[in-house]
Amino acid sequence: MRACLTKIGLLLAALFALLPQAALAQRAGELIEASPVADAPADMRAWRIRYWTTADNNQLIAVTGMVIAPKNRAPSPQVLAWTHGLIGIAQRCAPSLGTTNFTMIPSLSEVISQGYTVVAPDYPGLGSDMVHPVLVGTSEGRSVLDAVRAHRAIAEADAGTRFAVWGESQGGHAALWTGQLWRDYAPDLQLVGIAAIVPPTDLPRNFQEGSDARVRALLTSYTATAWSRYYGAPMSTFGSRQTQNVMTRLADNNCVQFDAKPRLGTIIGILAVQRAIRRLDLASVEPWGQLMRQNSPSPAAIPVPALIATGLRDVIVAPAVVEDFARAACAQGKKISYFSFENGEHSTVARTEAKTVLDWIGARFARYPAPSNCGEF
């Protein structure tokens, strides 16, 4: 028996010796693996990564993302965390599974030429086998902070601990939550600035005030399906079993592609959901209202200078909601640079106004005094 146990012990020791050390550590922010991306643009090196983070229930989970660094020189000591907008809730929608990040991240070539290492988390459930808790702030923010930590284990990409976070749409929400969680969750990192473009900031209002009813129907389908699975919130709120099934199919079968026409079945499903929820004030129905409120970022919790931007032609995230959030942050004494772009649309403003954002971020890394236009809007 003793000889048998000894053999088992030796076998286990040999097995553990073969496993990556990071996988054994299983600590939030530890890299599990990094796989080079063969088809990265010529001026870039990139890795698909898996790393550990902590879900909002404090369970350790393995999630995915991408790290992109300059190819022909060492990265500067500055990390830019890119937090992507809503692209779906299915595992296959993850940007890191393909080359989406290389076209989705605004002005990426310029970002890389300025020496940044870009850390682009997928968020839990995108690229990983679990429910994607869309617009769940703690889950998003922790996955961003742990991605910044994890990138340091890639020697060719390690750009240190100073970072800024820049996101659009859902990613703007994630960027604000990254700031809200930073000091308590990742004090080993140094956050220098937050850029939140067309961010959902007051979820009860966001679900009511977007002026495009068809888009609102699809976004409600994504969120309802995800939160019913993640929180156990009842889909019966939305009506008949048929309506619930349509919402679930829309959420499970559609990754957002702004440059592609939706399928006929998707259009029919969206119209059906639009009719079913046209009189529904979701924020007034529990537990949905409470979940919306608890996942809305706090204007009082912005810990560093922030750039907040909206586009006046945004029909998805109402510009008035973004402006009210920026005003509330100003009232809390925060350093806010607020931009309202006259021709800005939800799906394009992060790209068309990228230079403004990158100039602002560069000034934060350079330690210039942060501007504020509070009181001017």
UniProtKB/TrEMBL annotation:
<dbReference type="InterPro" id="IPR029058">
    <property type="entry name" value="AB_hydrolase_fold"/>
</dbReference>
<dbReference type="InterPro" id="IPR005152">
    <property type="entry name" value="Lipase_secreted"/>
</dbReference>
<protein>
    <submittedName>
        <fullName>Alpha/beta fold hydrolase</fullName>
    </submittedName>
</protein>
<dbReference type="GO" id="GO:0016042">
    <property type="term" value="P:lipid catabolic process"/>
</dbReference>
<keyword id="KW-0378">Hydrolase</keyword>
<feature type="signal peptide">
    <location>
        <begin position="1"/>
        <end position="25"/>
    </location>
</feature>
<dbReference type="GO" id="GO:0004806">
    <property type="term" value="F:triacylglycerol lipase activity"/>
</dbReference>
<keyword id="KW-0732">Signal</keyword>
<dbReference type="Pfam" id="PF03583">
    <property type="entry name" value="LIP"/>
</dbReference>
